[in-house]
Amino acid sequence: EGPESFPPLRNEAAVRVLQGRMKGIQGHCNSCYMDAALFSLFSCTSVLDSMLFMPFPLCDRNVQGILRDEIVNPLRRTGFVRASSVMHLREQLTDKGQCSSFTNAEKDPEEFLNLIMQQILGIEPLLKLQSGDQEQECYCYQIFMDKQEDLVVPDVQQLVERSFLSSDLKLVEIPSCFIIQMPRFGKEYKMFSKIIPSLELDITDLLLDSPRECCLCGDVATLECS
Question: Domain Peptidase C19 ubiquitin carboxyl-terminal hydrolase spans what residues (predicted)?
C-alpha cells in the first residue's frame, strides 16, 4: 500500500480548513521563510505533488516522507502544522546540505528551494530564462526592481512584467510551475507595504518568440518596443 495522500484545499474547503487561529504552519526559531514557502507550494495546489511521491533519481526518501507525512498531509487535512514537524525537516536539511544553520538561522527561500529540489530530490529545473544570448535554468524567480513611485499597491502581474523588463529577461518556454519570490524586504526597509495577489498570470508578453498582436493595427507584431 502506497503512502497516504490528501488533495489540496480548494474554494470553501480552503476557507473552512485554513481560516482562524492556530491555522497554517507554526513558526519557530526563524522558520518563517520555510513556512511561507511550504504553505505557498502545497496548501492549495497540487502542481508540485510529484515532490511528495515520485522516486526521482537522487531522491532522499526520508526527506520526502517528512515533507509529505509531517507537513503537507497535516496542512491539507487539519490546516495546521506543528513547529516540531518543520524542525524535523530542517534537521534533515542541515544533515544533507552541508550547512549547519538551517535549524536556527533565517535563510533566503531560494536557498531552501534549491537545496530540497535540486540536491535532495533531484528535480529538473522548473524555469528556463533567457537574457540576451544567455540561457539559464532555475527553480524560482526572484523579483528584482528599483523603487517605482507610480506603484503604490502593485499586483503580482505588474511586478513580474516590470522585473522581466528591467532585467531584459524572457521565458524560453511555458513553465510547468512558476514560483515567484516577491521583492525582498527586511525590518529596516519594505519596498511595498502591500502586494495584491494576481489570481491568474498572463505570461504572453514574457515568452520568447511568442506571436503577439500589434497594439496599433492588430496584425501579428514584427517589432517589440519595451
Answer: 24-203
- Secondary structure (DSSP) of 60-110: -HHHHHHIIIIIIHHHHHHSEE-HHHHHHHHHHHHHHTT-TTTTTS---HH
pLDDT tens digit string along 37-53?
A: 999 999 999 999 999 99
Q: What does the pLDDT look like over 92-103, one tens digit per residue?
A: 988 876 677 888
Q: Can you give the pTM of this predicted structure?
A: 0.87
Structure letter (DSSP) for residue 196? B
Are 16 and 115 found together in one domain? yes
Count of residues in the chain: 226
Cα 193-79-46 angle, rounded to 5 deg? 85
Its domain, for residue 198, covers 124-225
